[in-house]
Design brief:
The structure is a homooctamer of 249-residue chains. By secondary structure, chain A is an alpha/beta fold. In chain A, 38% of the residues lie in helices and 18% in strands. Chain A folds into two domains: 79 residues, no CATH class; 131 residues, Rossmann fold (3-Layer(aba) Sandwich), CATH 3.40.50.1970. Chain A contains ten helices and eleven strands.
Chain lengths: 249, 249, 249, 249, 249, 249, 249, 249
Amino acid sequence: MNDELTSLLTELRAGRLEVPEVAARLNSERTAATGDAHVDLDRERRCGFPEVVYAEGKTSRAIVEIFERQIEHGQDCLATRVSAEQADLLQRRFPESIHNETARTVRIDVTSREQRGRVAVVTAGTSDRPVAEEALETLRWMRCGCELIVDVGVAGPHRLPEHLDRLRGVDVVVVAAGMEGALPSVVGGWVDSPVIAVPTSVGYGAALGGLAALLGMLNSCASNVAVVNIDAGFKAGYLAGLIAQRGSS
Amino acid sequence: MNDELTSLLTELRAGRLEVPEVAARLNSERTAATGDAHVDLDRERRCGFPEVVYAEGKTSRAIVEIFERQIEHGQDCLATRVSAEQADLLQRRFPESIHNETARTVRIDVTSREQRGRVAVVTAGTSDRPVAEEALETLRWMRCGCELIVDVGVAGPHRLPEHLDRLRGVDVVVVAAGMEGALPSVVGGWVDSPVIAVPTSVGYGAALGGLAALLGMLNSCASNVAVVNIDAGFKAGYLAGLIAQRGSS
Amino acid sequence: MNDELTSLLTELRAGRLEVPEVAARLNSERTAATGDAHVDLDRERRCGFPEVVYAEGKTSRAIVEIFERQIEHGQDCLATRVSAEQADLLQRRFPESIHNETARTVRIDVTSREQRGRVAVVTAGTSDRPVAEEALETLRWMRCGCELIVDVGVAGPHRLPEHLDRLRGVDVVVVAAGMEGALPSVVGGWVDSPVIAVPTSVGYGAALGGLAALLGMLNSCASNVAVVNIDAGFKAGYLAGLIAQRGSS
Amino acid sequence: MNDELTSLLTELRAGRLEVPEVAARLNSERTAATGDAHVDLDRERRCGFPEVVYAEGKTSRAIVEIFERQIEHGQDCLATRVSAEQADLLQRRFPESIHNETARTVRIDVTSREQRGRVAVVTAGTSDRPVAEEALETLRWMRCGCELIVDVGVAGPHRLPEHLDRLRGVDVVVVAAGMEGALPSVVGGWVDSPVIAVPTSVGYGAALGGLAALLGMLNSCASNVAVVNIDAGFKAGYLAGLIAQRGSS
Amino acid sequence: MNDELTSLLTELRAGRLEVPEVAARLNSERTAATGDAHVDLDRERRCGFPEVVYAEGKTSRAIVEIFERQIEHGQDCLATRVSAEQADLLQRRFPESIHNETARTVRIDVTSREQRGRVAVVTAGTSDRPVAEEALETLRWMRCGCELIVDVGVAGPHRLPEHLDRLRGVDVVVVAAGMEGALPSVVGGWVDSPVIAVPTSVGYGAALGGLAALLGMLNSCASNVAVVNIDAGFKAGYLAGLIAQRGSS
Amino acid sequence: MNDELTSLLTELRAGRLEVPEVAARLNSERTAATGDAHVDLDRERRCGFPEVVYAEGKTSRAIVEIFERQIEHGQDCLATRVSAEQADLLQRRFPESIHNETARTVRIDVTSREQRGRVAVVTAGTSDRPVAEEALETLRWMRCGCELIVDVGVAGPHRLPEHLDRLRGVDVVVVAAGMEGALPSVVGGWVDSPVIAVPTSVGYGAALGGLAALLGMLNSCASNVAVVNIDAGFKAGYLAGLIAQRGSS
Amino acid sequence: MNDELTSLLTELRAGRLEVPEVAARLNSERTAATGDAHVDLDRERRCGFPEVVYAEGKTSRAIVEIFERQIEHGQDCLATRVSAEQADLLQRRFPESIHNETARTVRIDVTSREQRGRVAVVTAGTSDRPVAEEALETLRWMRCGCELIVDVGVAGPHRLPEHLDRLRGVDVVVVAAGMEGALPSVVGGWVDSPVIAVPTSVGYGAALGGLAALLGMLNSCASNVAVVNIDAGFKAGYLAGLIAQRGSS
Amino acid sequence: MNDELTSLLTELRAGRLEVPEVAARLNSERTAATGDAHVDLDRERRCGFPEVVYAEGKTSRAIVEIFERQIEHGQDCLATRVSAEQADLLQRRFPESIHNETARTVRIDVTSREQRGRVAVVTAGTSDRPVAEEALETLRWMRCGCELIVDVGVAGPHRLPEHLDRLRGVDVVVVAAGMEGALPSVVGGWVDSPVIAVPTSVGYGAALGGLAALLGMLNSCASNVAVVNIDAGFKAGYLAGLIAQRGSS
């Protein structure tokens, strides 16, 4: 920051840049105002990946505008929590986009970045699938290698060991589980990579919409388990990808 | 009930019993009033085991009086949540009593019932020990066979399988665990006996004094897991003993 | 486990089995992958009863596939939380299946095990009926004797004593109650068998969707009361059956 | 109010009262400022009974001053949640005062009102005693007849019926219970008088400091059960006394 | 109880009654089994008023059967939480029944008891009306005098004093309020009668479906405020009627 | 109050007013009873602004009557949480009314008060817009200057500084944010005016319907942040307007 | 911001300032590092008042160093939540400091700003005094006029009106109340100024450490009530002072 | 796993290993039983780092024994939540151990692994220091480079940017914050590395012992924020180290 600042100021001092130009560069074009929203076009420079659109509560038109602006700037596009109607409209407008119904995502690969890193996404039961798919789509959008291992909940304790080789071969493991949320602890005890635990709202009664699983995961006795919000497949995938890509070359 | 009632009434009708006698037998001597409390001396007849004294908030004198009354009626004695002071006084008054410091219990074996049934008490970590000990003392008071398996929490997943033979050889498994409370689900998936899960208040922060473990256990994906109150070693032991003794001859 | 392991290894050492065969037997055919899910076909061997299908969030096709696989392996089938549509399809595909609308279950008796054990299922009010029915269907699937006693809530305190003989004649009592969840405590005080308490989401306002009943049951002053999740009729029935069948010959 | 207002204004209009006098009477001497606090001396006129001092967080001096002011105005005095030190000082200053250690109350009978009404205070267990005693002291201060029935919790279901005659002979029943708080429902089903339920903080774990009992009582299936705050023996006694004295002549 | 018991037994002893007759009288006709439910026909004898039907989750046919049974036994009928469809059917079957749409109640006056007691039902805002109406209908069914005072919430502090004369003229005040639930405290400070506070689920956000009002009322600094469940208009009315009718002759 | 009282009484004493007149003025015309509700017409005199209609749960007819009564008394009208149907009817009856669909408000400018004060309403994301609009409409009804700054959530930290000049130029800042509710703290650290934080129910899972944001805002480390209820755009706007208009001349 | 930036850059461009100087001014001396902490010396410029020291968890030496640094920069000093030991040391080091024991504050008036604005601080009961005193000390540190009105809780409804003239004469009212937290709503209905409500942790049982009062205040039906954290006397005072000083000249 | 298994079995089949030897290797020496606890000596092989001792609730003797066993096996030692007494004893027994009082840790560097990776640990305020120190000690035990940045909470928004260069130069950022927990979101918006957020129990009232910060962090609008338990400095450090060391070579 200081380097950037000092260098800009030096240029100015030397007369190679003018005041309005420097002021503009310091405050500039990093946000694109669309009708309804402001896209953070600077996000990729700061954080490594472009802004992702959370579709819930947005008009289809707003999402289209954001995608258009991102495509103009050469940024990959991803929208999550997309309704059927929104997806329809997006697919008509962007025929190259990929819609994953289970994940409720739409993404457009604009760049041709190459794949790096490897993440396994594991589910305790079949009902955790949508959350896992959201994580997978996010990883695909990041160009991170990924694979899915389903239905290895702790009530069938022989199922997980069958997959240990695969789990030990990846950079990060994402575990999606509802009910008591015990699976991340068990996985965490078998691997030497970070585990991103994502509680799902699967269950009833004292599951409290995912709070039981969330609390379970936060209290995991395995040291390598970090937690994200309930049903936050996107965030789990994003963090896993970020970590996996650091760890690979 | 009806049988008992009908037979008493028949006796009365036949003149073999008198009214006050029948009224007395119907409303009678099933409670012993001590200074501070009423002992339910009928409990053993109704429920199979005598009343157990919860020592917290009771004077030592009150506990002594209850024990005396129970001994008079030939009932085994057990007090839980006994403070050091209470234990001292009880041991002086009843030298034959057995004090378990970790469990915080005092018990007196009055009858010479023979041992029946077999229960394994399992802990996730060393801090769950006091709760496990309370369960064990309760089982000893019931004359139920019992054994302790410690420190097999899920973060060390190879530790539990080493004990599977023992776990499969008992009538009931009691599992005490704090933090995320995942162990009962894992145990439940390996055995064909009922699992009594007792959450402990071990942990900090989002453990919420045992609530996280409690919720986890209630939402267990294993079908054979029933739950008791947080730190309720006594109740876990009692239920396990009740079930184990039914299941054995 | 060790026995099994040692014997397999001994066979291998002796040349009576080959490496791939042993590896296969150790990691083998215990899970059947269907389109959407993995059935734990080993569950019956480990836990005494086959896996039960939780229908919520599963496609009808997935349930059909699981049932087919279980029937192939000679396992009794049970699905809970079945929607009307799912039930329709299952009944068309398996005309021998039994659909209980109130319980929302479908089951198929594949084996001809004989009935063992005896459980009473008790409700506090008429609204607790669906949960009680789920418990009853589970018990029928287990071939455990069962009977239903309805509407004996504590506000009509003379109603319960009328049934004491029946309650005292069974191996386990399941009590389903909403609102304040007081009935298990009262039942627990009258019987010498274990009581499985299942809180229901019956009630409004401070009933908090069954949490009030759940907390009440966890704090029961009766020593023989274990608790399962809110509305968890299946789990209550399963535990009761497991215990009852141990206790009978 | 309007009557009082109209009559005051009529007096004024007629010249029988002067402006400052009427203004004073309308805004007047109903509060006595002591060093630390303002005593509501008008409370008895408005609400039937004088203000009661909640001692927690007050200096002993402040309580003495309030009592002095109340005695000057011929009002009976009651302080609740009195510490040992406060009680000492109050007893030295007011030798006629009555200190109940279990209830943690100090009261002074200033008036010689005669006793009216009859309330039974019932406890589930011995640990509920302090709350029951606070209710009893409040009733004594109100000069309401009262009696105590202890240790009739639902786990010993034969204990309550022994007292039904007494319970049916009073105007109001106060029931103090912790843990699952089931006793008020059971009592409510046997009597035709109002039941004031007071949850106590007795219990541990999922008792949540009395919240479980509170929720249980609020959801009571008995129609005649009203609830007050956790451990609020004073309020339970006050309400019971108010109702009982209305109902008697 | 003992009296009744002794007298029955004396009759038996004297040969004026036979064993089966006494046994029948002791266990007898106090419950009427309908298709779906058991009506507690003994409720009126024990508690002063007949059982009230909570319609939610019951079939219309079940309610009709209960009403028929109650009418046979000369008991007044009241059903609460009645849906439009249920009300329709009940009105067709019992043309003399009274349906209150706002209160969601249906009642039938079978007896010709005379009116006794007087209760004021007060609401903080217009949205609290349905709860207040349920209380009023309950009071009418009890033949207790009642009146409604609406919209006197504390934000308009001059509105309540206008009604003080009416509030001071009744035996009990019921106060229904949502949001912060402050009105019962304010009313409680002005009157010398018991106040039954009923929190309503009116409000949003941190109102938490009535929990904020419930907690506020439980913590009321006015001594004469007792609380019932959220939206429990029936229970508030029932308790108020019970108290009011005791207090009047 | 006393002044008003004294002066009224002086007039009375002097014979310039008569008793009924004074009594009427003291208790008088401050409330207008409509069919369903009582309008607090005195609100403007006491609190500076007329009563605002919370439309949820009210009939359209009731709102119309209240507006008519307010217009008769020369008061500006505002209704919040207006449904589409209610808005339709209000617009037909009052063609001069202004309906804001996003804000769900209808208002009528009756007076011609001039604009005073200046408030900035800031949102973290686009989904917070409806709450912000409700605040803006309230400010317009108060004739307070206002401007909207959208989509400056903390994940794009360069976006807020662009608006600092505008934020520093107003009297009060309203900040609407969901999820973690961090924006008010950040804004609070940049400005010297009060910040009214309004949590929104935007988010999922552990957002708990706005509770997470609410707790975050209450714990703000910035000293100048006050909080209102979840989604309470009206209250945020009202408070901001009240403060802004005091601070300007 | 931009102005400041542009002007700095213009100076630089014109050669009137050098690069290091501008960089220094942009990143400069706004934070003073002490041994343990960083003091935000720029706070006064940005927010109008200097940083306030929250003493809990800080060493006395750290507070002394922060005060010294602030005094060097001519800033008034305030520390809250000061323990007796900390206060002692601060008073020895800064004899001119003012220690308020009840408020647990220490402050030093360094500047000679003149008093502006007027705030009334109101308490419901005597136990709310410490929170009120913390607010008062904060107001004194801000040089804002303030006065205290104690013990006007809603259970004594005649007490508040006596103070209406005073309440109506100030710019802002702070109301501190525990238990049900009803007082801010009542005050809010009588005044036309903003009300800052501060819930206190006064009460027991269902008061939940101030949560009941907090929820009550957030749901206040009075439009002019904003809320701060439980026991946050400092923040209530700070906000009130900020608003009051804006509104006065 | 399968590879290991197959190779062992192949050795066995070939006669190069004997049955007992293979069985032993499969079930073997991975756990060391001390008096009180079982050390998971296999942890390092499975998970990359040795087991860490949570000292709370353990005897000093038990910790000594575990350390001895770990040293025998050439494993680095770390104990967290160490009391002063425990630390004393450990330091006497292991003079080479390093005790960090603020962090409450004791560690012994047994191996001479070289440093890899770089983590910045950031605190919002001085009170978050102990949690940050626990994270730092964990990182030192892992031989991960680390640095501490204190007191950059969001209320002083200019403080964070001064450290951006350092934050952008590390592999992972750990952020410890209490109160509203907003700092991780702000940091997350500036960096392209993963952020591990650790809520602290710093704050009062509605901070709810760290729950407010926890919820805030879980709902962070920054995509790169993962969360661990309240005050879980160890787990935050561990995860950060695990990630940082993967990402560096």
